[in-house]
Amino acid sequence: MTLAGLLVAMLLVVVAAFGTVSGYYGGLVDTVFMRLTDIFISFPSLVLALAFIAALGPGLEHAVVAIALTSWPPIARLARAETLSLRKADFVVAVELQGASTSRIILRHIVPMCMSSVIIRR
User: Fold this and answer.
1) CA angle at residue 18 from 79 to 85, to 5 degrees?
2) In angstroms, rounded to a whole number, what is the distance separating the alpha carbons of residues 81 and 20?
């Protein structure tokens, strides 16, 4: 795997976590994260990718990284939507009643359920 591929894979994980945390906590956290996502969506992604390429320099790896950096908002929105649908599911409520921490609930129960939808729909 090249460096660009590794960076894109890591970016996918970070963005999915971004959307998952936003959807799970809701409220102010969700509002701030989704407004940041809206700001990125408001710019044309190709123009933003060209700006990143100009800053990073020429090369195929830089082009892949620039496209990955500009295509994250739909992934975050998908992860958030899946989390919103799973947040009050029976299995999550059962884990909460068992006393699991929020990070454990997100990482062990919600993220695995969200990742299949994010990977397939993207």
Assistant:
1) 30
2) 8
Evaluate if residue 63 carries a pLDDT over 80.
yes
Q: Among 70, 63, 73, which Cα is nearest to 22's?
A: 73
- HSE (CB half, 13 Å, CA atoms) of 61? 9
Range(s) of the domain holding residue 104? 3-121
Helix 73-86 crosses helix 3-25 at what angle (to 10 degrees)? 40
> 101 in the Ramachandran plot: left (φ > 0), alpha (ψ -120 to 50) or beta?
beta
pLDDT given for residue 4 in this prediction: 67
Domain count, the chain: 1
CA atoms of 65 and 25, how far apart (whole Å): 29
